[in-house]
Design goal:
Rossmann fold; Helicase, Ruva Protein, domain 3; 7-stranded mixed β-sheet; 12 helices; binds S-adenosylmethionine
Length: 295
Amino acid sequence: MDTFLTITQILETLKKNKITPNKQLGQNFLIDKNIREKIISFAEIEKQDIVVEIGCGLGALTGILAEKAEFVYAFEKDRKLASILRNKIEGLSNIKIEEKDFLEVEEKYFSSLKTRVKIIGNLPYYIASPILFKLLKLRKYIKLAVVMVPEDVATRIVAKTGDKNFGVMAALFSLFSHCFIVYRVSRTVFYPTPEITSVIMKIIPVEKFESELTQDIFWKTLEKLFIQKRKNILNVISKSFKIDKNTAQSILEQAKITPTLRSHQLEIDQIVRLVHLMSKAKLKNFDLTFKGKKI
Ligand code: SAM
């Protein structure tokens, strides 16, 4: 059952249910079927796929996903929208509306699904970055993600070494996934029209990452490395990790990094070597606290 609504049907539904789209929840509804088709085709949905949709809203994607996949778990934080869609799909046995904040879903929810899922969603803009980070953390449960996100967030994720946007997000995503911007979307495909441009991203998690270090250690060490982007890397690591300059210099030498580089100029393999060395340094009681907590 296709649950896509035209702009006229959306306006009628909102009026009938006395709802005004909630800006704070990032409620911009997709009104262009072509874009919907693009999202579905990028996700290459197959009959045996289990799909987790984030922010199903009034169902622009939900119904068609359920037609193509084995099962759809559709998350929606807004109680009213969840209830409208739940009523509409009554009787359909392969959609479950999860009336929950996606950011609060625990790992055990995904492990209980017993198979890797495809993540689809027109993400609520205000929490696009935390959702993407969450997906990265959950990557072992995810086959791929096709998500609509604000262009500036996507740009920070796909940035390469040397770009001014190359930072924690880009480094983490390039370590733990293959990710691409696959389509730029006009603002007019939504009602209400958002102020920002969106893009569709495809993210394929790296299945096995060869390192004894956890993603959290990478994450937290990177946060420290990229904290002062204008300073050279020698100063950054000696200040952020509170180690003397000679030791910092020797770590950089071992990591084959020129001390005058800025953090956004580091290549991914240099970052990996540096994080491993910093982590070893932890064993010798160097300060690896982050935001007041030991990492
Ligand atoms: N999928 C629908 C569409 O394409 O028309 C709606 C997309 S709209 C950009 C984002 C949706 O996410 C809204 O329905 C909003 O209520 C919902 N949402 C906002 N914050 C959420 C959260 N933390 N967890 C789950 N859903 C959320």
